Amino acid sequence: MVKKSLKxxxxxxxxxxxxxxxxxxxxxxxxxxxxxxxxxxxxxRDQFSEVPVRxxxxxxKIEEVHVSITDLYYLPxxxxxxxxxxxxxWQHRSNDFHxxxxxxxxxxxxxxxxxxxxxxxxxxxxxxxxxxxxxIDLSKIKKxxxxxxxxxxxxxxxxxxxxxxxxxxxxxxxSLNP
Length: 178
Known about the structure:
18% of the residues lie in helices and 38% in strands. The protein is α+β, with helices and mostly antiparallel strands.
């Protein structure tokens, strides 16, 4: 009787191990992006020689909007910031990719930077959004905020239910010269 129980436990553990390996193989790129092993960059040909400056965002999970954020990567010569957002597929079921999140960067003077490029990736359980914000010179900015909103369509109107404003730690980046 004990042998049968041990065989069942061994079989279950083996299945869990196999499923874990299959998940890691299927979502390998997603895992690297989510945990900072790969930077979420969308570079043009003339940007390959630029070295991105990493801006550590600290805790990654933003509970109010059910999203996580990667560290930010700034290209001083190109004046672009790159980052990624990811979320569980079942938490945001919008078919319209661009309207899952409205992301705006804002400086200390209230100037908004929302000229963005998008790209997406879907994994087994998660969706990942690459974001690039252009025309932003951090050498002239003292404080920077990321504002993440979730717009929802209510008839003909678009309303914003959840919004989170996060300060970006850019101390010491003002001395960057391209």
